[in-house]
Amino acid sequence: MTEPKVLEVADLTVEFPTEDGVVRAVRGVSWTLGAGETLGIVGESGSGKSVTSLAVMGLLPAAARVRGSVRFAGRELLGLSEEALSDVRGQGISMIFQDPMTSLNPVYTAGHQIIETLRAHRRGMSRQAARERAVELLDIVGIPSPAQRVDSYPHELSGGMRQRIVIAIAIANDPEVIIADEPTTALDVTVQAQVLEALERATDETGAALLLITHDLGVIAGHADRVGIMYAGKLVETGTVEDIFYTPRMPYTLGLLGSLPRMDRPEGRLTPIAGSPPSLLNLPPGCPFTPRCPLAADVCDATEPPLIGTGRPGHDAACHFHDRLVDAAAGEVFATTSADAGGEGSAP
Amino acid sequence: MLAYAVRRIAVSIPVLLVSTFVGFVITSLSGDPVKNFATSASPPPTQGAIDAYARRLHWDEPLLERYWIWLTGLFRGDFGPSVNPGRDLGADMWTRFGVTLRLITAAIVLALILAVVVGVISAIRQYSKLDYTTTFLGFLFLAMPAFWLAVLLKEAGIWVNEQAGTTIFYTIGEHSPFLEVDTAWNRFTDTIGHMILPTISLALINFASWSRYQRGSMLEVLNSDYIRLARAKGLRPRTVLIRHALRTALIPLVTISAIDVAQIMGGAVLTETVFQWHGFGEFLVRSINEVDVYGVLAWLLLAGTVVIVFNLVADLLYAVLDPRIRYD
Amino acid sequence: MTDTAARRAAEREFTVRERTQLQLTVRRFLRHRLAVASLFVLILVVVFAFVGPLLWRYDYAQFTPDNSVAPSLKHPFGTTEDGKDELALVMRGTQQSVKVAVLTAVAATAIGAVWGAIAGFYRGLVDALLMRFADLVLTLPLLAVAAVLAGNTRGSWWLIAIVIAGLQWAIVSRIVRGVVLSLREKEFIEAARALGASDTRIIFRHLLPNAIGPVIVNATILVAVAILYETALSFLGFGIKAPDTSLGLLVNNARTAVDTRPWLFYFPGLFIIVIALTINFIGDGLRDAFDPRQQRIRQ
C-alpha cells in the first residue's frame, strides 16, 4: 500500500438536475488506485459506478454537477478544459465501454480508429509506422490475421472482435490507467472469458493500473486486487478480494455473495436480496439499504453510517452493525426476511 | 461501385416509365381539352372543327392508345401537340427548363450550406440562446407560405433599390430584356443578379426543415457511444466534432434533401410566379390554364426525370459516405 | 425485525402513485408551455373564423361604400379596392382554409393508416406493391400535381382537400407500417392470434391503436402542411375561387398592392403563419408527450 497512487478520487459527488428534481448519482466517493493495481468496483445498475468513471474521464454531459477531486499523477482533473483533458485521455487514462456494438464509429475502419488514436498523442508518428503499430496492437488483443482485419469496418466484425479493438485503442498509447466499464456485460458468455483474457494481456503489456467496473462478482474474484462495493451512489464496503469474499462486513455485500453460485459450496442455497435499489431522487435520510436489510433498526432510518474501519487494515464498511456480521453466512442472515416462522433460518 | 451505379440506373428506367403512365393518367383526369375547345372558343366551333381538333390531339383514341402514341413520339423528340397550334412544346420547354434548373440547383446548394452550418451549431450549443433563436426561426420559416415570403423579399428588394436610388436587387424576370453592353460577363452578372432574391426565397423554405433535421441528426451522433469513445481516446475537440460527428451526421441529410427535390420543383413554380420568371413554372401554370395536356405532361416528365436523377446521385453519394451500404 | 423491514419496503414501494397512459400524456403535454399557449391561440383563431362572421357587421361578399381604406375602427383590417371589408374576408378565408386543411389531414391519415397497416401486417408481396406505390406518390412534385388535378375542381373546398389528401397519405402509411412491422411479432399479437382473432380485428383493435401516438402527431403536422398547400394552390389560382375566398387567394389578390394597400397583404399572410406556426408547436408538444424517451435534462 506504499506504492505511489496514480489516480486519487476524493469525496466525489455527481448530481443531475432533471425535470423532477436533482438526481444525486454519486454521493461522496473516495478511492485510490496504485500503479499497476487492479481495483474492482461492484454494484447494481444505478449504483453510480459508471457515473464515477465518466466523471474521472470528464465525459459526463454538460448539465451534470461534479464536485470533489480527481487527481491523476498528482494533477487535478476536475475543472480542466476539454482541450487540456484530451491530453490526459487516451494517453494517461483510457477507457473501455460496455457496448462494443456502438462504441466504434461505423464509417471508419478499425485500423483508422486505432491509427488516429496513436497519432493524436504522437505528433511525429508517420502513417506507415502507426499502421504497423495498429497491426501489432490487434495481435496483442488476440485478433486473428490482424494485417487483414486492420482494414475491416466495424459492421464486418463480431461483438467480441469489436471489444478487442476497443481494448487495442485503449492501450495504444501505453496509458497508466485503464478504466473498463462493464467490458463484458454486452457479450455472449462464451466470449466474455476471451475478452477478459485479452484485457489482462493488455494490462500486462502496458503495466497499466486497471479500474474494473462490473456488477459481476465472479469477474472481480479472478481479476481484482482490491474491491469497492457501491450502493445508491456511495461506497459501502472496501477491502481486498479476500476481505470481501470471506469476511464481508456489510449486509449488502453479504447479500450479493449469497446470490452468487459457488462451486466451493455446492450445498448452499442461493439467497436473493428482496426489493430493489432506491431512487436517487429525493433520497430520505438514513442508510439507503434499510428497506432491504434484514438487520435494519431504528438507527438505520435516522442516520446514514459512514465508511469506517472494521479492525482489519484497508477493510472498511458502512454499517451500524458491521460487527454482527463476523462469520455470518448469507443464508442465515437473509433467510429470515422471507421466512415468517422461526427455525427455517438455520437450515440447511 | 460502378456495377452498383449501372444497376441503380437500370432500375430507374422502369420507375420513370411507370411515372410517365401515372402522369398521363393524372393529366387525363385534369381536364378535357376538346370539351374546353368546344365550350369556350368563340365563335362556337363547328362539329367538324371540333373533330379535327380532337384528331390533332389524338383525343379520339382510347387512353392506352393515346399513351402509346405519345410515348413513341418521345423517342423522336416529339413532346406531343399543343392545344395552341403555334406553340412548339419541345422548344419552349428546354429553354425554360434551363432557367428553372439553374434556380433550383442554386437554391438547394444554398439551403444545404445554411442547414448544415445552423444545424450543427445549434446542436453543439443545445438549449443556448442561439439554439432557441434558430429553432424559432426554423419554425417560423416552416409556417411561412413560400409565396408570401417571396413577395415579402421582393418588396424588400424594391425598397432597398428605392433607398439606394439604383437597382441593387432585380425583382422581375430571369434576366434583363436587353443589355446596354452585351458581353458574356455582363450577361453572366445580370443573370446572377436576377437569381439572388428568388434563390434566397426558395432556399429559406427548405433550409428550415433541413436545419432541424441536421440538428437532430447531429445531436443523435453527439450523444452516441462512438463519440464518447472518440473523446475518451484523447482526440482534440475539433477532430471529434468534424471528423467523427459531422462526417457521420451528414449522411441522413443526403437522402432527405434528395427526397425533397420534388417539392422544390413545385416550390419553384411559386417563386417564379412571384418574380415573374419565364421559367418552367410559368410553362406549367400556362399549360394547366389552357388545358394544354401535353404541356402538363411534358412538365411532369421532366420534373420526374429531375427527381429520379437527384435521387440517383443521392444514392451513389450515400454509398460512398456510408460503408455499411453494400454495392453488391 | 422481519416485520419492520417488510413494512418499510412496502412504504417506500407504494409512495409512487400510478398514472394511466393518457394522464401521463396530458401531463407531459401541459408541461410544454409553448404548445399549450399555441393551442389557446389556435382555438381563438378558429372561434374568430367560425363564430366571428355571425357577429361582424359586414359580410365577406358585401360591397361597402368605402373603397381602399386603411385599417380603422370601422374596418379594422381595412377594405379592398372594390370596397369589401378585409376583416370579413379574412374570417371567411380562414374558415375555408381551415376546413380544407382539417379534412385533408383526416382523409390522408385515414387512408395512410389503413394502407400502412395492411402493408406492414401482410408483408411480402402485398407490402412491396403497396409501399412502392406509396414511394412513387412521395416523389411526385406535390404542389404541381395538386395544381394539375385541382384545375378541374372549380374551387370546391372538399374536392381540393381530397386532392391534397390523395398526395399526402403516403407519409402516414410509412409511419404506420413501421410501427406495425415492429409490433406484429410482439407477444400480445401472438396471444390475440392464438385466441382466434381475425386479421381485421388484429389490425384495427391491436395494431392501429398502438400507432396512435405517431399518427396523431403526424396528423397535426399535416393540418399545417395542408394549410400551406391550400393557400399555395389558391395563390396560383387553382384552389378556392372567387367569389368565395381563402387566405391564399387574398394574398394573391394583394400581391401587386403591397406598397399601396399593405393591409391586404399582411393580414391574411399573418393568419396563415399564425395557424401553421401554432399547429407546428402543438405537434411538437404532442411528440414530446407521446414519446417519453425524449426526456430532457433541464439546464
- Alpha-beta classification of chain A: alpha/beta
What's the main sheet of chain C like?
none
What is the helical fraction of chain A, as a range of percent?
A: 25-40%
CATH superfamily of chain C: MetI-like
Number of continuous helical runs of chain A: 13
Q: How many β-strands of chain A, per DSSP?
A: 12
Count of domains of chain C: 1
Query: What distance lies between the first and last C-alpha atoms of chain A, to the nearest angstrom?
Result: 40 Å
**What do we call the CATH homologous superfamily of the largest domain in chain A?**
P-loop containing nucleotide triphosphate hydrolases
Question: Mean pLDDT of chain A, rounded to whole units?
Answer: 85
Helix content of chain C: over 70%
Query: How far is it from the N-terminal to the C-terminal residue of chain C, by CA?
Result: 44 Å
Topology of helices and strands:
The complex is a heterotrimer of chains A (348), B (328) and C (299).
Chain A: E1 5-18, E2 21-34, E3 38-42, H1 49-57, E4 65-72, E5 75-76, H2 82-88, E6 93-96, H3 100-103, H4 110-121, H5 127-140, H6 146-149, H7 159-171, E7 177-181, H8 189-206, E8 209-214, H9 217-223, E9 226-231, E10 234-240, H10 241-246, H11 251-258, H12 298-302, E11 308-309, E12 316-317, H13 330-338
Parallel strand pairs in A: 3-8, 3-9, 6-7, 7-8
Antiparallel strand pairs in A: 1-2, 1-4, 4-5, 9-10, 10-12, 11-12
Helix pairs in contact in A: 4-5, 4-7, 5-7, 7-8, 11-13
Chain B: H1 2-30, H2 33-40, H3 47-56, H4 63-75, H5 89-124, H6 129-143, H7 146-164, H8 184-222, H9 225-232, H10 237-249, H11 251-274, H12 280-289, H13 293-321
Chain C: H1 2-13, H2 21-31, H3 33-50, H4 52-55, H5 86-122, H6 124-138, H7 142-150, H8 157-183, H9 187-194, H10 199-210, H11 212-236, H12 247-254, H13 262-290
Helix pairs in contact in C: 2-13, 3-5, 3-13, 5-6, 5-8, 5-11, 5-12, 5-13, 6-8, 7-8, 7-11, 8-11, 9-10, 11-12, 11-13, 12-13
